[in-house]
User: Fold this.
Amino acid sequence: MQKKYGTQLHVLHLTTAKELDLFESGPIDNKQITAEACVHHLWFNQDDYERLGNLIKCNPAIKAESDRLALINAINDGRLDIIATDHAPHTWEEKQQAFAQAPAGLPLVQHALLTLFDQVKRGTMSLAQVVEKTAHNPAKRYKVQQRGFVREGYFADLAVVSAKPGEAVRHDNTLYHCQWSPFVGHQFSHQIRYTFVNGQCVYQDGAVVDVPNNAMPLVFERD
Assistant:
């Protein structure tokens, strides 16, 4: 239908190798059909259900290792244009229900970027690709004004990352209101030291910095 009518189409949350055959490689510029994968589908595979169970139940579901590797290959060849999070902080109590009743989704936003820096350290993707897929391409695809790049006159939305490991993840050192993480026990290869939003430091060395009235609406270019 997209090809028939020439509309814009962005497909969310790809999880299987088979789906990737529908998309073309190459830079995002001038693409009318684009696609995205989430950090947890680049990290976990179906073998992790035995250890984590409901904690990694999500929609669409985490698939086989062959699918995970295919997603990473598609990041590298440009079939996948954007990396997202799908942050869904269900409570610990909700996740303790029987599998069929437990809600789908997991808290991700605090550790999403760190999973990608681990991918860089493993050699599965480059730092330039992380920047492109998480910052440049979302701004380009959605035509967000003055964001997504480090440029004069743009809003300073920045993360300052140290190439030194931080503490191993524990439930009690997360910043999520739900107070749990599927990454418990893992020590990431990097740590986020500072986060800036609209030019203001809102996170520093493990603590949220309260900056009142710092939020701003995104502005989009419209044809």
